[in-house]
Amino acid sequence: LFWLLCILLVFTYCVSLVLTQGAASYFQDVAESGKISDEYIEVKNAFGSIFVTMYSLYLSITGGRSWGEFAHLMSNAGAFYSGLLSFFIFVNLFSILNIVTGVFVDTAVEISKHDRSMMIEKKNQSKDATLKHFVSLISQLDRDGDGTISKDEFFMAMTQPEVQEFMDALGIDSENAAEVFLLLDEDRDDTVNLHEFVVGMERIRGEAKSVDIQMIRLCMRRLV
């Protein structure tokens, strides 16, 4: 973008140099003829020096003043200068400014990609944190330390306030302890190991995946 702005500045300077020279020739012709018109003053105010001409071109491409007015003024110096100013406007509007717009769009797309990456990373971090909570919870539920949770251990743990709060945070009603245990016990051996616990809790947690819906699925699987 920096180099593009440099090119635009150099291009504007070159065009301003030619237009200023054309205006100077016009001023000389008017001085020789001795007839000073109202447009002479306007041309001098708009193209009296290189920097004034550059400012006029800036106004013409930004909408500060109609470029058609400037083109009409430069027609006094000759059709070539009027055409050059029109060509300058065309190049800026349909080429350089479109490129600048494309640069900003590409920048916005890159920022959007970065935001998506951050969102995915945040989601993965949240998932890892939830997994750690599950592992910590199963170690708390497993009172005898055999690596599995029995039905009695599960029901007893569900009466503890800290376990109930954790279940509520996951969107699981602690009052549905029996249904939750059935959903977690995939192999129906009346015990829940670490894998069953983590996979089952991920499946049933949240409002959109409630215990009731999962119970219906369980019943359907058993009927089949």
Class by alpha and beta content = mainly alpha
Please state the average pLDDT score. 78
Number of strand segments: 2
Q: Which strand order do you get reading across the main beta sheet?
A: 1-2
Radius of gyration: 39 Å
Q: Output the number of helix runs.
A: 10
Sketch the topology as an H/E string, one letter per element. Answer: HHHHHEHHHEHH
Low-pLDDT stretches: none
Characterise the protein shown here.
Helices cover 78% and strands 3% of the residues.
Short summary:
Helices cover 78% and strands 3% of the residues. It has helices spanning 2-33, 38-47, 50-62, 67-74, 79-141, 151-157, 161-169, 177-184, 194-204, 211-223, and strands spanning 148-150, 191-193. The radius of gyration is 39 Å and the shape is rod-shaped.
Annotation keywords:
224 residues, mainly alpha, 3% strand
Task: Please render the helix and strand layout as text.
Blueprint lengths: L1 H32 L4 H10 L2 H13 L4 H8 L4 H63 L6 E3 H7 L3 H9 L7 H8 L6 E3 H11 L6 H13 L1
Antiparallel strand pairs: 1-2
